[in-house]
Design goal:
By secondary structure, this protein is of the alpha+beta class. The protein has two helices and five strands, in the order E-E-H-E-H-E-E.
Length: 113
């Protein structure tokens, strides 16, 4: 089963984490199953950017982002070339990943607006 290393995030995962997830599971679902409370305001419907992650290792092994995902990523805080929506990116076969959760998300609900 592929291994996912989650880099430390001050609020969500201060110590970082090491989790596993089966091939084909979304990165978001793997994080949630591993006890990492990543935001997913649209309930994983590819309608927001709150589950935005940076794939620091293993990005090339992921299936390409859809046009809809790319359009949404354009609105994500801290967009980088290795950005993906974790609800859309699926764990690839036999490839370990290193994931960084950005410091901020664009989520007016969690910000109290």
């Amino acid at each position: 089963m592929p291994h996912i290393r989650v880099l430390p995030h001050a609020e969500i995962c201060p110590e970082g984490a090491d989790i596993e997830g089966p091939e084909g599971m979304s990165i978001c679902d793997a994080l949630l199953s591993g006890g990492i409370a990543i935001e997913h305001a649209c309930e994983k419907a590819c309608a927001c950017t709150t589950c935005h992650v940076l794939v620091r290792r293993g990005y090339e092994a992921l299936a390409p982002a859809s046009e809809k995902e790319e359009d949404l990523l354009d609105k994500a805080w801290g967009l980088e070339p290795d950005s993906r929506l974790s609800c859309q990116a699926k764990i690839p076969k036999g490839e370990d990943l290193v994931i960084e959760i950005p410091k901020y998300t664009i989520n007016m609900v969690s910000e109290g607006h």
